[in-house]
Amino acid sequence: MKLYEMVFSPTGGTKKVCDIFSNEFQGEKRTFDLMKMDLSDCKDEIMSDDICLIAVPSFGGRVPVPAAESLKKVKGNHAKAVLITVFGNRAYDDTLLELKDIAEASGFVCIAAIAAIAEHSIMHQFGTGRPDKQDQEELKKYAAQIFQMLSEGHTFGAFVVPGKRPYREYKGLPLHPKAGKLCNECGACVSVCPVGAISKENPKVTDNETCITCMGCVAVCSKHARKLNPILLAVASNKMKKVCSNRKENEIYDKWEG
């Protein structure tokens, strides 16, 4: 049995949560980056006795479009899948349900799902420092339980996750990172953008219609040259304050049998 991590993590929060979980697995592991992965590498590799951690952030209560498109091309071959969605202390709405639907349609057998908190990728004052020590211990304990049950041959039943169909409509955000005077056109942002919204010829130019505000370009910029409009960011933060200020807890969904 191998462990595969399939992760879409523009700013590192989702990868951090996934790694806490995968570090409890003692066998062979391999990671596929859904931000840029070559799907030909794994489409025929995953076997029925493998386990996959499929981890994505919640973008407005939905699976990020490029992550969804990548996962739909993967052949699960009846491998067991643990689904992970990471959200910035607001809500994840239909994300887990959509992720479960995509995974099952791709041939995975979903055995568990987790909604975990990480620091908000845009408004860092929400969920600051999370996953914190309490989160990490909780995730580690649950991961150890799952991997032990797998090794002991336990079976898994169908389980329900929150969400509704049709999924909520997500039109994106009116916030898009722009390059400032510090930009030296190194192109690092171009290489990480999952939707090709940044011009290769002129990295200072971003297509706002294509940009999904994943913040990957901001995270990778060594010059800290890419930023959001501070006025628009302040307005958005104020709107989110009420629903994001109180601490949310991690949620776990599964059904063990015998």
3D structure, described in words:
The protein is an alpha/beta fold and 258 residues long. It has two domains: 172 residues, Flavodoxin domain (Rossmann fold); 50 residues, Alpha-Beta Plaits (2-Layer Sandwich). 28% of the residues lie in helices and 18% in strands. It contains seven helices and ten strands. It has a six-stranded mixed sheet with strand order 2-1-3-4-5-9, sandwiched between helices. Helix 1 links the parallel strand 1 and strand 2. Helix 1 packs across helix 4. It is globular. It starts with a strand and ends with a strand. The mean pLDDT is 93.
Concise synopsis of the structure shown:
It is built from seven helices and ten strands. Helix 1 (13-22) packs across helix 4 (133-151).
Write the layout of secondary structure elements.
Layout: E1 3-7, H1 13-22, E2 29-33, E3 51-57, H2 65-71, E4 80-87, H3 95-105, E5 109-117, H4 133-151, E6 155-156, E7 178-179, H5 188-192, H6 216-220, E8 226-227, H7 230-244, E9 251-254, E10 256-257
Parallel strand pairs: 1-2, 1-3, 3-4, 4-5
Antiparallel strand pairs: 5-9, 6-10, 7-8
Strand content: 15-25%
* Count of distinct structural domains: 2
In angstroms, what is the radius of gyration? 18 Å
CATH topology of the largest domain, which one? Rossmann fold
How many H/I helices? Answer: 7
Summarize model confidence as the mean pLDDT: 93
Strand order of the largest sheet: 2-1-3-4-5-9
N-end to C-end Cα span:
21 Å
SSE pattern: EHEEHEHEHEEHHEHEE
Q: Tell me the CATH superfamily of the largest domain.
A: Flavodoxin domain
CATH class membership of the largest domain: Alpha Beta
Structural class of the secondary structure composition?
A: alpha/beta
